[in-house]
Amino acid sequence: MPDLTLTKVAKSFGANVVLHDLDLRVRDGELFTLLGPSGCGKSTTLWSIAGLHSPDRGTITFGDRVVFDGGRIDVAPERRNCGVVFQSYAVWPHLSVHDNVAYPLKLRKEKRSARAARVREVLELVELDHLEQRYPHELSGGQQQRVALARALAHPPDLLLLDEPFSNLDAKLRERAREWLRALQRRIGVTTVFVTHDQHEALSMSDRIMVMDQGRVRQIGTPEEIYQEPADVFVADFVGTVNVLAGRAVPGADGTARVRLDGLVRPLVVPAGAGLDGDVRLTVRPERIVVHPPSGAPADAVNVVTVKVRSRAFLGDHYRYVADLGERELVVRTLAPVDHGSELIVELPPDAIRVFGPA
Ligand SMILES: Nc1ncnc2c1ncn2[C@@H]1O[C@H](COP(=O)(O)OP(=O)(O)OP(=O)(O)O)[C@@H](O)[C@H]1O
């Protein structure tokens, strides 16, 4: 399977600039996810790769094959050899499962016997071989989506392109579908570009994620890098839950870095070397905040503050509290049950804090 490279791909619809000189490289065999809010240009990127949109500028290559080059080269979608699955199942209602999957092979004029063998093979792959003669209306949503996937794989594609393929499935089924697809993708090793606006989906399935915002790349990294080392506040906030606290850096005489927050008596100690100056924003994940018992925090704990619980939600495996921290709110995630209105002694460990510039 080839690498996929996009170089300075730009696309506008009228005055609306949807992709700003996008650069990305998907490695051979990788499951690469485009993640971002609605309208950020994920589908436009995927469609440009598939050849369903022509970018205004830029280059797209599959390995050393140029499929798009500034309009001089624009290989037709059916010659790019991409398997594409969209959000809507887009299986033909009047064709059986077998005939849906056989269709692309028929178009390619493959021999009947080879066709039948390949259909059987991909239906086994998606675990639908026992439903070969059924029609789409006799299948569940998840099964229809697997038919669409089998059809995309029927003629082995160089690239598999998936645009929110699970969004019509309910939460439980979706979770199973993710695991199943990830295992299948690993097994067949097809280079895959996956579009979603669901951070959990992106984190759980991807080798690497590209976070997009308004047609620009915010960050490309592994799920761990994106979550633990976000490039900016947008990424930190879009992927997972994060507390964003605006404050002002104060130079520490002892070489440590500190940030003063309105309403807090003592400035917070933040990681040294954070390059602090003037207005800053701090981020801290709710699960990194340590909750101490009412008897208090150990003497060596830093950034210990008492906060008042304003609301609480029991979420089965943890409680989520929203508490007042000075003049702002702090989301805390913990197993400890605490009443609404009571006080919590919390610690914001410096290594859980990341420092960014002002908004
Ligand atoms: N054919 C089109 N004509 C005009 N504008 C379009 C067209 N397709 C997309 N757009 C606009 O381009 C922008 C990006 O759309 P795109 O579908 O790529 O976003 P997305 O990130 O996939 O969003 P979603 O998650 O909602 O599908 C949006 O502002 C959208 O309205």
Describe the structure.
The protein is α+β, with helices and mostly antiparallel strands and 359 residues long. The chain has 2 domains: 4-238, Rossmann fold (3-Layer(aba) Sandwich); 243-356, RNA polymerase II/Efflux pump adaptor protein, barrel-sandwich hybrid domain (OB fold (Dihydrolipoamide Acetyltransferase, E2P), Beta Barrel). Helices cover 24% and strands 35% of the residues. It has helices at residues 42-50, 97-107, 112-125, 141-154, 171-188, 199-205, 223-228, 233-238, and strands at residues 4-13, 16-26, 31-35, 57-62, 65-69, 73-74, 82-85, 159-163, 191-196, 208-213, 216-221, 243-251, 257-260, 268-270, 279-284, 290-292, 304-314, 319-325, 328-334, 343-347, 354-356. The chain has a 6-stranded mixed beta sheet, with helices on both faces. It has a 5-stranded antiparallel beta sheet with strand order 2-1-4-5-6, with helices on one face. A hairpin with a 2-residue loop joins strand 18 (319-325) and strand 19. Helix 2 (97-107) crosses helix 3, helix 2 packs parallel to helix 4 (141-154) and helix 3 (112-125) packs across helix 4. The mean pLDDT is 90. Bound molecules: adenosine-5'-triphosphate. Adenosine-5'-triphosphate binds at residues 13, 16, 18, 36, 38-44, 197. Residues 13, 16, 18, 36, 38-44, 197 line the site of adenosine-5'-triphosphate (ATP).
